[in-house]
Design a protein that fits this description.
globular; Rossmann fold; eight-stranded antiparallel beta sheet; single chain; 18 helices; Glutamine Phosphoribosylpyrophosphate, subunit 1, domain 1; binds fructose -6-phosphate; seven-stranded antiparallel beta sheet; 3 domains; alpha/beta; about 625 residues; 25 strands
Length: about 625
């Protein structure tokens, strides 16, 4: 949440910052701002609205400086106004600051600073921190050791802060310098050719450099045009490790698609290939994971799995639960990360704890991981963003390798999480009692998943036509059973988050215990009705809806036949192995939600009130 960019180098900072903010806009998009240090002043332009609005405003300023910071906001404290947009400047004009996170004890600090004569132009927690830095600086202004004095003022201020932050600070007395620090909000330093770019994530800097340093919690970086150095809040020196990003700027571009979400939906066959690559045994009967950091012998001792995540990733956990219990026959539980972190869940010594997170920065998921570790459990992560906080703090894990996911609504990351979950289930099952030949069948099925997903994507024009017909409704139900019940939840989430249509997901048979009261000609139901022993039961549930005049959209697998007239619309997907079915079934609900949102004129990649990567509680 909130996108941060800072630049120190030889180029005009404003162009690089605005370009970076455009790439970070998916993290928050209610207001944006930029501050450039030039002519001995901190010159600020900031506006409520999108980065485009800021770009126009910035063009009116004569921003020529080569040091600057920029921010795109997802509001926490204070409404969406020009004044509340970042950067904030201290009331003495000495420091400018951008912030991602929440300062929890801001009101006590504000009282203190008001008592010292500092004034406030916004309702934000961030402005308090900016004035606090100015206060520490005013107490003892710059001496001989100019640069490190800057760091000291930031360090002293942060020592008083409770909450979370990724911050970047400019000081009027420190031309060409920048100080940044993090606690629970991500920051990456790009080490370029004679320039440094600091940002919330790599997409903002990858066009200028692929060499990066992932800052850790409690670290402060001091940047000058010539060098950077990292220390901790406790003043210890840190030797930085420069990593290389494996993807390029082209991966973060939209290409010929209308939206990132559309691009990412159609990228799924390739994304699944990437997730599987190099991860099957030579005999083709099981999966292999390089970084799991748990031996086969240890895994054989595991008698319970616990998965935690948020949102769409939580739905991936539910599918994984189904597959682990079905194929490995080990009890598995799923909890919301936000609940787990505050509940005192009893964990047995042979429990294996997993989190799933695309971004690897979701604060609740991170807190759940830390809580499990604090209790002494091995905690593993399934995660897409290499070098993310969760990836670094987990005891081991599995990277999804699907490249940057920019659309706020998760699509390719979700199906890739389903793939990893299916592979984990296979791996554990083969360590127990799944036979060699069943393992070979399972692996073959997983390898066939990209082709089946591609086939399901061929339904796009048909689904688009259905979307036109249903875009005007206000409510919708999504119904499924077994491994497709989580897909019903996912369908409802996708639809509501991007099209603002109220939607609910239910196990199909549960519908008659309450939700059926909603059914009328005004409330359509989307059913997953795959072939198998449960098919006739699902058909009965459809009959119950139809008897109450509810429109029915049926997603069936090839070879299934519905009684004539039962469904108003039918979408056919390939029939497939149980481990692959959820990946294939995800396609029609993603496309349906996407086309309905487009039909309603919604801003698909930037839905209202949302942001990618939820780094606040
Ligand atoms: C919905 C969506 C969110 C995320 C959730 C967790 O489309 O994207 O529900 O799934 O915020 O995010 P990660 O996976 O980054 O932890």
């Amino acid at each position: 949440m909130c996108g941060i960019v800072g630049y120190v180098g030889k180029q005009r900072a404003v162009s690089i910052i605005i370009e970076g903010l455009k790439r970070l806009e998916y993290r928050g998009y209610d207001s944006a701002g930029v501050c450039v240090l030039q002519g001995g002043q901190l010159d600020v332009a900031k506006k409520a609205g999108r980065v485009e609005v800021l770009a126009k405003e910035a063009a009116r300023h004569r921003f020529n400086g080569t040091t600057g910071i920029g921010h795109t906001r997802w509001a926490t404290h204070g409404g969406v106004t020009d004044a509340n947009a970042h950067p904030h400047v201290s009331s003495d004009g000495k420091f400018a600051l951008i912030h991602n996170g929440v300062i929890e004890n801001y009101s006590q600090m504000k009282q203190f600073l008001v008592g010292k004569g500092y004034t406030f132009a916004s309702e934000t927690d961030t402005e308090v921190l900016c004035n606090l830095i100015a206060y520490h600086y005013a107490k003892e202004p710059v001496g001989q050791n100019g640069g490190s004095r800057f760091v000291e003022c930031v360090r002293k201020s942060l020592q008083h802060v409770e909450g979370t932050y990724g911050i970047v600070v400019l000081g009027v007395d420190f031309p060409g310098e920048m100080v940044a620090a993090r606690k629970a909000s991500p920051l990456i330093l790009g080490v370029g050719d004679g320039e440094y770019i600091i940002a919330s994530d790599a997409s903002a800097l990858v066009s200028r450099t692929q060499n990066v340093v992932y800052l850790k919690d409690g670290e402060i970086v001091h940047i000058t045009p010539a060098a950077f150095s990292i220390t901790t809040l406790d003043q210890e020196d840190v030797s930085p490790v420069v990593d290389r990003i494996t993807w390029s700027v082209a991966d973060a571009d939209m290409g010929d698609y209308a939206h990132f979400m559309e691009k990412e939906i159609f990228e799924q066959p390739q994304a699944l290939e990437n997730t599987m690559r190099g991860r099957f045994s030579e005999d083709g009967s099981t999966a292999n994971f390089g970084g799991l950091n748990i031996t086969a012998a240890e895994l054989r001792q595991i008698d319970r799995f616990l998965f935690c995540a948020c949102g769409t990733a939580w739905h991936a956990c539910l599918v994984t639960e189904h597959l682990i219990e079905r194929f490995a026959r080990i009890p598995c539980e799923v909890d919301y990360a936000s609940e787990f972190r505050y509940r005192n869940t009893p964990l047995h010594s042979n429990t294996l704890f997993f989190v799933i997170s695309q971004s690897g920065e979701t604060i609740d998921t991170l807190a759940a991981l830390r809580e499990a570790k604090r209790k002494g459990y091995k905690a593993l992560a399934i995660n897409n963003v290499v070098g993310s906080t969760i990836a670094r703090e987990a005891d081991g894990g599995i990277y999804q390798h699907v490249g940057p996911e920019i659309g706020v609504a998760s699509t390719k990351a979700f199906t890739s999480q389903l793939m990893v979950g299916a592979m984990v289930a296979l791996y554990v099952a083969r360590l127990r009692d799944m036979s060699f030949s069943d393992g070979v069948q399972y692996v073959k099925a997983l390898k066939g998943a990209p082709a089946l997903v591609r086939k399901a994507l061929e339904q796009a024009p048909h689904i688009r036509a259905i979307a036109k017909r249903f875009a005007g409704y206000h409510d919708m139900l999504f119904l499924g059973r077994l491994s497709l019940f989580p897909l019903a939840l996912e369908g409802a989430l996708k639809l509501k988050e991007i099209s603002y249509i109220h939607a609910e997901g239910y196990p199909a048979a549960e519908m008659k215990h309450g939700p059926i009261a909603l059914i009328s000609e005004k409330c359509p139901s989307v059913f997953f009705a795959p072939a198998g022993e449960i098919f006739p039961k699902i058909v009965s549930s459809m009959q119950e809806i139809k008897a109450r005049k509810g429109p029915v959209i049926a997603i069936i697998t090839e070879g299934c036949e519905l009684p004539p007239g039962l469904a108003d619309e039918v979408i056919t997907i390939p029939d497939c192995h149980e481990a692959v079915l959820p990946m294939v079934a995800a396609i029609p609900i993603q496309l349906l939600s996407y086309y309905i949102a487009v039909e309603r004129g919604c801003d698909v990649d930037k839905p209202r009130n949302l942001a990618k990567s939820v780094t606040v509680e």
